[in-house]
Amino acid sequence: MAKEVWRFIDSGNHSAAFNMALDEALLDWNSEGKIPPVIRFYGWEPATLSIGYFQKVEKEINMDMVKQHGLGFVRRPTGGRGVLHEHELTYSVIVSEEHPKMPKTVTEAYRVISEGILKGFHNLGMDAYFAVPKTEADRESLKNPRSAVCFDAPSWYELVVEGRKVAGSAQTRQKGVILQHGSILLDLDEDKLFSLFKYPNERVKERMQKAFKSKAVAINAIAKENVTIEMAKKAFKAGFEEGLDIELEPYELTEEELAYVYKIAKERYESDEWNFKR
């Protein structure tokens, strides 16, 4: 039987505002029935700190350090914590909530979509698996993560290699469409990451950074050979095709579609009102 064909967009490196606007535009077009489900790969130029929809900038984020490092800054339309997008492959999946492959609950849909990422890690020769919070305390910490750092907070169906988190994802559902996007870390500058958040004092920061090392890891810290961005794209594209049992067909945006994306970027994701609200 022929496999279902989804679109595949490798949009390359763009600004934070463009990246979030394109994810939103794809969600819009899918909700209007203009496009089939989409898997997109992208990067960030400049490197960017993205924060979750509900995070409070003045309370959690050290904007002086964001500027000092020359980073972009954007609020995502999805929940979750702060992510430094630098040495990584970022992915997004846009698919209707009514799609026959998509379970009704967020957690189960997350597991189905993440199957593609799991297979991608296997394609890189890494022994990745899903971790599920076992204890009541773990489950409670999902609802109230203490840390502002994404890779420090536990979540359902976390992707783990050698006991440490290797990918962080977030999901939103709007207009009958699921948008899940996330970071697959190739390398990580921990000092830079931890300089971007506010802490009660230096001791707390040191303790959190130390604990972080035991919870999260980048691919190249544990891979047998250095994984380049091109190797990662190939592995995870094949992973999504296998994990979701689909065929991915490359697609380039039209001028008209790009104009719509730039309009959303300018009106929402470049605006202080959006990025610094709450």
TrEMBL record:
Q: A single GO molecular function, which one?
A: ligase activity
PROSITE patterns reported in the protein's UniProt record? BPL_LPL_CATALYTIC (PS51733)
UniProt catalytic activity: octanoyl-[ACP] + L-lysyl-[protein] = N(6)-octanoyl-L-lysyl-[protein] + holo-[ACP] + H(+)
Write the record's keywords in alphabetical order, separated by commas. Acyltransferase, Ligase, Transferase
Would the keyword Ligase turn up in this protein's UniProt record?
A: yes
Question: Catalytic residues?
Answer: C150
Q: Which residues form the BPL/LPL catalytic domain?
A: 33-248
Q: Can you tell me which family this protein belongs to?
A: Belongs to the octanoyltransferase LipM family.
Query: Would you tell me the protein name for this molecule?
Result: Octanoyltransferase LipM
Gene designation per UniProt? lipM
